[in-house]
Amino acid sequence: MKRIKLAIAGLGNCASSLIQGIEYYKQVDEKDCIGLMHYDIGGYRAGDIDVVAAFDIDARKVGKDVSEAIFAMPNCTKVFYPDVPKKGVEVKMGPVLDGVALHMENYPENKRFVVSDIKPCNVKRELEDSGADVLVNYMPVGSEQATRFYAQAALDAGTGFVNCMPVFIASDPKWARKFQERGVPIVGDDIKSQIGATIVHRALAQLFKDRACVMDRTYQLNIGGNTDFLNMLSRERLKSKKISKTEAVQSILDTPLCDDDIHIGPSDYVPWQKDNKVCFLRMEGRIFGDVPINLELRLSVEDSPNSGGSSIDAIRVCKLAKDRNIAGPLLAISAYTMKHPPVQYPDEIAKEMVDRFISGEACETEKKRFLSAADNTC
Q1: Helix locations, the chain, DSSP H
Q2: Which element (helix H / strand E) includes 44?
Q3: pLDDT tier at 213 (50, 70, 90 boundaries)?
Q4: Average pLDDT, stretch 270-299?
Q5: Percentage with pLDDT > 70 across the chain
Q6: Which superfamily is assigned to 197-302 in CATH?
Q7: Which of 34, 236, 318, 319 is the most buried (most CB within 10 A)?
Q8: What's the average model confidence in pLDDT over 127-151?
Q9: d(CA 107, CA 11)
């Protein structure tokens, strides 16, 4: 039986939803399956993923079995599969680096991270000893150093890397070249939820474009109550996040909007919302006869399960690439599941590319062009 050995950096809400989902889909056959964009990817089903290593910095998680840690504070996502069995995998202490925003100290312990005093483990050695095929990165937004640390650890251990956070690794030609030369596949950057604010905004931007409506200005404001939104109250941690979300929408437009006419990013932290994310979206444009049109939308969704629907595909495609000895940035699945992929494609095109990749058709032309950028920037 084909299995995927998974390592996870960051046992927060996203990891909780992912691991719950792995167990949930073990119990569901294809005809009754809800919520998977691909039931089978190259012989790998969602339930074929085994967590073999996990890293965190929170005192309430480090040292515990993964099955317990994913339900420990400050996690607050919806519990849709409470009976996650013991994994026999202890959560190891990772390096803190820039993974904790200083302002979090001003909030109650049940809302923020509590840093363990245990000495950090050797992550590379843990990856090697566990035999992990893929490492998924769930560091908090703004954790530039921590994300690069785990990316390098994956490189050193020869472990595939799925970067769900807005630190540019797969989309940075220099990093992409490192993964290519090491023979390791990478998917990134910044996970795009199954039906989230970014994918909806992109779809509506595409609709405006396809129906000859000129978009003059737009905003996307998001609020939530999980540690992600608390962390993002530190605006200096948002630079990459804003770039990632904004470029995901701008890439749809023939002529990008100027900075004054587009605003996309987190707005505020509302504790009682917990893991529920609410997006307020407005688009202003002109239709036939240069007549104005305004569109407003409110989207409410449980944030972490929404990302799990994309992560579980990215992980399986990364393992499939590893099986096929395909290295470097995986353009199709990155464009399909990430906000800031190496190369942006319209979502319907990205889906077709993923399906072709799964079936064994893989076009490397764009990858070669992208990787050549690394040679020109060295």
Answers
A1: 13-26, 66-69, 123-130, 144-157, 173-182, 197-210, 227-231, 239-250, 303-323, 331-337, 347-359, 365-377
A2: strand 44-45
A3: very high
A4: 98
A5: 97
A6: Dihydrodipicolinate Reductase; domain 2 (3.30.360.10)
A7: 318
A8: 97
A9: 20
